[in-house]
Amino acid sequence: MSALKIKKGASSHSAYDLRTPFGDTVEQHTLAVVVENEPGVLARVIGLFSGRGYNIESLTVAEIDHTGHQSRITIVTSGTPQVIQQIKSQLGRIVTVHTVNDLTVEGPSVERELALFKVAGKGDHRVEALRLADIFRANVVDSTLNSFVFEITGTPEKIDAFADLMRPLGLEEVARTGVAALARGV
Amino acid sequence: MTKSMTGAKMVVQALVDQGVDVVFGYPGGAVLPIYDEIFQQNHIKHVLVRHEQGAVHAAEGYARSTGKVGVALVTSGPGATNAVTGLTDALMDSIPILVLTGQVPTFMIGSDAFQEADTVGITRPCTKHNWLVKETDKLSATMHEAFHVATSGRPGPVLIDIPKDVQFATGSYTPRQKMESHYHPQVKGDQDMITELARAMETAKRPIFYTGGGVINSGPAASQLLRELVAATGFPITSTLMGLGAYPASGENWLGMLGMHGLYEANMAMHDCDLMINIGARFDDRITGRIDAFSPKSKKAHIDIDVSSINKVIHVDMPILGDVAHVLEDLLKIWKAGGRKTDKDALGLWWSQINEWRKVDCLKFEQKGKVIKPQYALQRLEELTKKYDRYICTEVGQHQMWAAQYMGFEDPNRWMTSGGLGTMGYGFPASVGVQMAHPDALVINVAGEASWLMNMQELGTAMQYNLPVKQFILNNERLGMVRQWQELLHGERYSSSWSESLPDFVKLADAFGAKGILCSDPDTLDDAIMEMLTHDGPVLFDCLVEKHENCFPMIPSGKPHNEMLLGENADTANAIQSGGAVLV
Lengths: 186, 584
Prior knowledge:
The complex is a heterodimer. By secondary structure, chain A is an alpha+beta fold. Chain A contains four helices and eight strands, in the order βαββαββαββαβ. Chain B is α/β, with parallel strands linked by helices.
């Protein structure tokens, strides 16, 4: 299981560097966990977080390789460096977990989230919502005479910003997917 | 060649292929097909316990005393939920066991059927891994993988939930050799880090080996290598409760157990050392005491097979991920190849300091008057049994700590105790499991009367299979450790910590057809113990001891190693302050 292999000469940018001095600052990390796609595997991962008192800011999961029975779980979590290290180690020793990668420290990565926003309004509010959606490159995927559903993709921060702007314009409902992330380059 | 057979037969076949000779279990509706197969063969012996918790602890005792996987077989619903304590116990102490549970047929799962429980859901956090097998074709491969997972890397309990229709249906059997698993934890340590440790050992002035259950779990070779390493370096060595026996208690470098009720010299040496070499231990809170004052002056190395144990509690300078035996072999090679030498002068000073601490004689007690001191009882038991081929189990509480302090363990796998979970009721069924594995050995369970009563029904099992387990009960008519904490922490208000309406243990033994012995006089203790040892069959030894004896030395909660309470005259009035009071 690769999660148990400490790379030789691991630097502070390695997920498995065990020698990071422990600080007290809470950091947010995005973890990519590739698991065996079998019943209960998500419960194992979530149970680890709830049972040991770790935070889950966001979690997405879907099958990524049908023939290889693999799913990818992307978890955004927060904690002190020691807690983050523990989370990675604990995830790594789950029998059905293949790999754990910390996208926050292992070099640059891209993070994207998809969200749907239902905004109801008339007159100026409706026009303003449409104008802002254009600025944010959000698409209109449903439209009635008094509502829109916008589809927006971006970093969580971008989606937060869009939500802040939509709120005074008649934001009715939000659905967010949580973060999907990949390391840049190869 | 794959053979076709029923799921129930596959279970038995896989157990035989894995070298299992005994299964501890209790039948019920959802496992009847497996019991039917067990009935029709002679390879595997089934031991009928009296409660499923007993089956799991017996499997643990079997596993700990042999190094092999212990197997328990229970039915669905209550059978499975009764196994939960044993599974958690095995998880905490890294004991390889396999629990097979029956389940309602697949088409009834989720319907709240009779004796249905979400067994894999309930046991997910208390197993290393578990499986619900819904297809007979996958059953045998899962069985083989379960043995692989239980014993690879950090050992632990695994569970397979088998619906009844899967047991009845026919499928193809996958032989053991065909088992595929992607689970292969790293066993070899990083050579550079091992070399760094060897270098640190050369210059260390006050080194100490701090060893744990990982040495035992790594196998007999690990204990042998540990002994060679201690001999090659001359360093002092201490061990956790779980690691007793890896280094012999008679060895000259032995400091005794460390921790909350560890020996003064062991804890003081841990506190003052400049190089701590943790081998297969996990900086448990019973060991560290106050974290920010734990061994403040030392460089720390940690050899562990579980990456999550490293830097979990204590930050270490030299983490070495790997199997103890593999790492010790490499360490010894590196040590010898380089012609490395320790700092003899510094080591001499260190030993003279340790010998000063030894003079405190922290385990001294006075046996006077007509009441047996529990320490005396164990000292006599040790003296009269140490020549035997002996296995010691314990329950949990004061008697457990006294057994660890006053009995000596010369070899690994001879000491079965519930360390991490602290399960009262562990010892008696564990002794049943040990005796099954070692029919001719002397198996003693050192118990308190309260712990022993928690699984006393297993006396029926011991009688049925003629297992001559010796139940050595230190009877103080109290929950001794609870009473001790109430004395130290709760103003001597002994809330529910004494046992009323205790049975007459001699009559109780008699009722089961076992032998009961009562002893309350220190002068007749030796004779009574000899009577226990010479009786061919289970014995219930009711040893009436001093009721208010406290277990010392003791590191009070929230205190560092060098602030131990010693003996009867310790100032216990304000030993535990509010910060420590919340700790358990």
